[in-house]
Design brief:
By secondary structure, the protein is an alpha/beta fold. The protein is built from 7 helices and 11 strands. The longest helix has 27 residues.
Length: 256
């Protein structure tokens, strides 16, 4: 992290949040603490970063990455007045009660920060429906306690095809019957409605121990699952990017 010298109020910064995942790079541009542009790409090299930084006059950035960055990309980000690379050593606006913080996924941390900022003083659960489905809980005191990790939509379809002799590889369906009427619809109903029941079950379980629970759903499969979930939830496709921005602003405040 490189602190800035004399700079504008952090509330007026134009910032960049970068989430380099295993398969996609998601990024968001924030102005006055509001996301004004977001995109997802298969890759984002140093040249593309330089264009983004120049076009939007980026002053600060935060990077969450599960892959090795190129030296050129790291150098480009390092030239910014203020840059944070998220790790388990990065100061956070929440407390971490997880027993092994060094193993905690950075996207999980960001999602937890986002829901705590959305509902300060309340129990909050972030659900990220991606390759895996992650559940991340922050109590009303602002402490991240942990959660669950389960297989995601595609992983379940892939597993049924891979580990059986005759089940086909199927894709998700926009609508699924409650009772499948052939093999494909039985698999779709089982996976998609099964995940929805899982999510509802976890929400009920948390609610029993932590009343007045607030829940946010994010991730690539949100649109597939949202209509099947019975619990009251808030869907936000930019939850992780918003959490990264909150962490960046927290560190900018600490740097003075």
């Amino acid at each position: 992290m490189k602190p800035a010298g004399v700079r504008k109020s952090i509330d007026l910064m134009t910032t960049l949040a970068l989430d380099f995942g295993n398969s996609k790079v998601k990024f968001g541009i924030f102005q006055e603490n509001q996301i004004v542009f977001q995109d997802a790409r298969s890759s984002l090299g140093a040249t593309s970063l330089e264009i983004l930084i120049h076009e939007y006059r980026i002053q600060a950035a935060i990077l969450s990455s599960t892959r090795q960055m190129t030296p050129e990309a790291n150098a480009t980000l390092g030239k910014l007045p203020f840059f944070v690379e998220l790790s388990h050593h990065t100061p956070l606006p929440i407390r971490i009660g997880y027993k092994t913080p060094e193993t905690l996924g950075k996207d999980r941390v960001a999602a937890a920060v986002a829901v705590q900022a959305m509902w300060p003083g309340k129990n909050a659960l972030a659900i990220d429906a991606g390759t895996c489905i992650t559940y991340d809980f922050v109590d009303k005191a602002g402490t991240y306690l942990g959660g669950q990790i389960t297989p995601g939509l595609y992983m379940r379809f892939k597993a049924m095809h891979t580990f059986t002799g005759r089940l086909p590889q199927v894709e998700h369906a926009d609508e699924t019957p409650e009772i499948g009427f052939n093999t494909a619809t039985s698999m779709q109903s089982g996976v998609q409605r099964g995940i929805a029941h899982e999510i509802d079950g976890f929400i009920r379980s948390y609610n029993r121990q932590y009343p007045d629970l607030q829940v946010a759903l994010t991730g690539g499969d949100t649109s597939v699952l949202r209509s099947l979930i019975e619990s009251e939830i808030f869907a936000d496709s930019n939850l992780v990017l918003t959490g990264l921005h909150k962490i960046l602003m927290h560190n900018a405040e600490l740097a003075g």
